[in-house]
Amino acid sequence: MTTASYVGIEVELNDEGFFTDPSAWREEMAPMIAKEMGIDELTDEHWRVIRFVRDRYLQTGGGPSVRVLGKTSGVEVKDLYRLFPKGPAKQAAKIAGIPKPVGCI
Predict the structure, then answer these.
(1) Residue 103's pLDDT is what?
(2) What does the pLDDT look like over 78-96, one tens digit per residue?
(3) Could you give the angle at which helices 88-95 and 44-60 cross, rounded to 10 degrees?
(4) What is the residue range of 77's domain?
(5) 104 DSSP 8-state letter
(6) I need a labelling partner for 4 at 20 to 30 A (CA). Which of 14, 26, 31, 64 fits?
(7) Is residue 36 part of a domain?
(8) Cβ contacts of residue 29 below 8 Å, gap of 6+?
(9) Res 105 pLDDT > 60
């Protein structure tokens, strides 16, 4: 495990860089996490997906797959890959401070 500091708050990350405690996440952290992943600016579309992923996790205890994201988030799969080019479910989950979704490599 490792730690990172976002907006002056120390958080623990697992070996893959996902938050170990999703309750430590704050929206203000998302742009910093995104920038580390090569996403320079979070648009309204990004936020729609990030908030959707986070809400889904809080409701179900797991993050959605890309397929579920494309069907239920209101953002089409091709747009998900434009927004999160290194894997929409994985990148969105990391930016949203939740664990890596099951099935992501």
Answers:
(1) 66
(2) 999 999 999 999 999 999 9
(3) 80
(4) 29-95
(5) -
(6) 64
(7) yes
(8) 6, 7, 9, 11, 97
(9) no
Contact by Cβ (8 Å): 50, 83: no
**Count helices and strands in the chain by DSSP H and E runs:** 5, 2
CA distances for 13 relative to 22, 71, 98, angstroms = 10, 29, 10
Catalytic residue among 4, 13, 37, 104: 104
User: Domain with 80 in it: what CATH number?
Assistant: 1.10.10.370
Domain assignment present for residue 65? The answer is yes
Q: What percent of the chain has pLDDT over 70?
A: 97
How many structural domains is the chain composed of? Answer: 1
33-43 burial by CB neighbour count: b if 16+ within 10 A, else e?
bbeeeebeebe
Q: In the numeric block, which tokens belong to residue 95? A: 């930016």
Encode pLDDT of 8-40 as tens digits. 999 999 999 999 999 999 999 999 999 999 999
> Is residue 59 assigned to a domain?
yes
Catalytic status, residue 104: yes
